[in-house]
Task: structure prediction
Amino acid sequence: MPPELTDRLARPSGGFAMLAVDQREALRAMLHERLGRPVGDAEVTDFKVAAARALTPHASAVLVDKQFGWDAVTAAGAVAPSCALIAAADHFVAGADEFVADSVIDETLDPAELRAQGAVALKLLVIWRPDGDADKRVALVDDFVRRCRGHGLASIVEPVSRAPLAGGGFDADAGILAAARELGSLGADIYKTEVPTHGHGTDSEITERSRELDDAIDGHWVVLSSGVPAERFPETVQLACRAGASGFLAGRAVWASVVGSPDLESDLRDVAVPALQRMVRAVDDTVSP
Result:
């Protein structure tokens, strides 16, 4: 993929400071927990539009899902001109006790149309399980990367480490590295990974495991914030970037604390924006142009 596409997702520092608002049923569940009542689709969408309007002036790119966000966010002109658009190209398959038990390419999406609407990149979530079908995962990523290239879009692949369907013992960190070794050299323009130890390890542990990820991944890679304590995330971004990462693509560490706020606009401005700015500084201070 021409480097100018990934350049459009980056900051002048060369690092990626990308915001995610593509959460779907997980976001509905967060709103339900905070509000104590059922939450309709419109409320999920309204949060995404408000978050995009407040936060995208400070992000290099924003990831939005078609199901609840894309049409409303783009129609409202909620994304700052300086912020590139990423469309989620995944269809989530729910499980008995998981919002996302599996993920496939959403065949209802038209990449050409998304590009015409301003998309620079597409993102695909891949569920990695130790007892999953590796050939199927590789084929899925190969197909996704090929489709993106065919439509002049950058590709972002996001494997997440999950417990085996068969049950039993599970080492999430081992899964993060195994996923990178399996899928990190298949040609994706950006590889999005969980933070080693989900931020609960020591600085040296996170650094060493990030170096292992860097060895396994060809090209740019960034970290996500799910599972990482929000106050710890900027530090883990810096640790990962010193080990070879190029930034972050994250949502919860930015805006989770203001979900369900009775004064959302103010809390986005006063709480979420400073949180995002701290993460941006962590990238700019660490990634060399």
Remarks:
- The radius of gyration is 18 Å.
- Residues 93 and 102 are 5 Å apart (CA to CA).
